[in-house]
Design brief:
The chain contains 12 helices and 17 strands.
Length: 481
């Protein structure tokens, strides 16, 4: 018995059905796969006993180096007589950073209390210079004494007694590790030593953070710092809020419109990072986030309540209130994004966005920072004071003393794991899109052939009708003849 031949027309509804099936399957698969990925990420991001996230917190799989750049004052005597400071940048003096963290306790499933200390180790091979290098540096303890309210008379007496100078010569090691200072000894602080690095190796920070147990988007968010749920440095509730993460964890599922908030004890405030560009680091596609150019704008600082005392202009933040009244200011290195007046008041500054911007590279799905450069500059405001001989003739100037670049890079193994996660996420997106495209294509092709066949059938009917009419006309003509 011969098999019946399948009509060519039969494949059209089959193709349409297959196309529809592709589309429905891809939609269901997309949402199901996304659910699975989000579920797995949420589970892995929870900070709990023996979890990957806890291990990441206690021992970040990253190389961390802090590069210090010091400003060597070339004309200290002339500065005292009212001349513009001439600075030469020295460095980088590079130190390997080790974070030592210990868990104090889990306050609840969603709250973790940990303490942290930081230890640094000099790396000569990564440095441009030695710790024995001598530079002329601002006498910061003296500035601290001068800035103390209602203590000018005592400050004058003490500085004359100790033959204090405004600029001193010290080695890099002394500035980093500490040197004996009579004014610090009188204050009975730090065993009479002054150091640029705050409490190297001493526990001084305590964080209570969100574990992400209830909501992974909240992982790392700070509930309190050193026992404080809000700060008391600034002039508004908003400015004193401790918001954002501790800088170890960041929320997952970032997009280009995200604002990433963190709390910085060094800056005495919370801050936000904004999207800059797409990038790729060691094979991992990243979103790069950086400081907004107006983060330290004077109008914004004043409006938000950060202008305590002197708000000198755009690009600098007065941190005197949280550093014991010393006239300290934070800025970006070389006054990047600051008023031109600050740059012009100093010889030796050249702001460059490529090497001075605060920048972090995030893998957007997990929110993990693949690499980053935390860059900040410390400055002190000097102004004339007729009661103090050292300051009688000085011109008002915001003097940079040091800037640092804390460079962080995840290790290769963690980067490869992130690359795999990113690949699977892209795969989950690409496969359903491909299936939808294939399904639509099948439906369009089958629709095209269906329309073509319908048109052919219509044309055939029309042709038959014309033949029939022609035949009728011929017969009618013959009958007439």
């Amino acid at each position: 018995m011969e098999k019946k031949k399948v009509s060519k027309k039969n494949w059209i509804p089959v193709a349409s059905f297959v196309g529809f099936l592709f589309i429905m399957t891809s939609i269901v698969g997309y949402y199901f796969s996304n659910y699975i990925i989000h579920f797995r990420l949420s589970e892995n991001l929870k900070i709990e006993n023996n979890s990957k996230a806890l291990k990441f917190l206690l021992n970040p799989p990253a190389a961390i180096y802090r590069k210090y750049y010091f400003f060597d004052v070339q004309n200290s005597v002339e500065v005292l007589n009212g001349k513009k400071p001439i600075l030469i940048e020295k460095g980088p003096y590079t130190y390997r950073v080790e974070w030592h963290r210990k868990i104090e306790n889990f306050l609840d499933k969603d709250k973790l209390n940990y303490s942290q200390s930081t230890k640094i180790y000099f790396e000569p091979s990564l440095s441009k210079g030695n710790q024995s290098d001598v530079i002329t540096f601002l006498n910061i303890p003296a500035i601290g004494m001068i800035n103390k309210k209602n203590m000018e008379t005592i400050a004058v007496f003490l500085m004359e007694h100790f033959d204090t100078e405004l600029f001193i010569k010290r080695t890099i090691k002394e500035l980093i590790s500490g040197y004996d200072d009579p004014l610090m000894e009188l204050k009975k602080k730090n065993n009479g030593k002054f150091s640029i690095v705050k409490d190297n190796g001493t526990e001084w920070q305590s964080f209570v953070i969100d574990t992400g147990f209830i909501d992974p988007l909240n992982i790392g968010k700070v509930f309190s710092w050193n026992g404080l749920k809000k700060l008391n440095y600034w002039n508004s509730e908003k400015a004193n809020q401790i918001s954002g993460t501790d800088g170890t964890f960041y929320p997952p599922y970032l997009n280009r419109s995200s604002i990433i908030e963190s709390y910085s004890p060094e800056m005495c405030r919370s801050y936000g990072l904004e999207y800059l560009r797409d990038n790729e680091i060691n094979g991992v596609k990243t979103y790069d986030f950086h400081f907004p150019s107006d983060l330290f704008s004077a109008s914004k600082l004043e409006q938000e309540g950060f202008c305590d005392g002197k708000c000198l202009g755009n690009g600098v933040l007065n941190i005197s209130s949280c550093y014991g009244g010393v006239s300290g200011f934070i800025s970006q290195p070389h006054f990047l994004n600051a008023d031109e007046k600050f740059i012009q008041s100093i010889n030796g500054l050249e702001p460059n966005k490529e090497i001075h911007d605060f920048l972090i590279h995030f893998e957007p799905t997990t929110g993990v920072p693949v690499a980053g450069n935390v860059r900040l500059q410390i400055n002190f405001y000097l102004e004339p004071n007729q009661d103090i001989d050292l300051l009688k003739n000085i011109q008002p100037v915001l003097l940079p003393v040091i800037w640092f670049d804390e460079e962080i890079k995840l290790d290769l193994q963690t980067t490869e794991e992130l690359s795999k996660v990113a690949f699977y996420v892209r795969l989950v997106t690409i496969i359903p899109v491909s299936m939808v495209s294939t399904g639509i294509l099948l439906i369009l092709v089958s629709s095209f052939f269906l329309l073509r066949n319908s048109r052919n059938q219509l044309n055939n009917k029309n042709a038959k009708k014309k033949i029939y009419l022609a035949e009728e006309a011929r017969l009618f003509t013959n009958e007439q003849n």
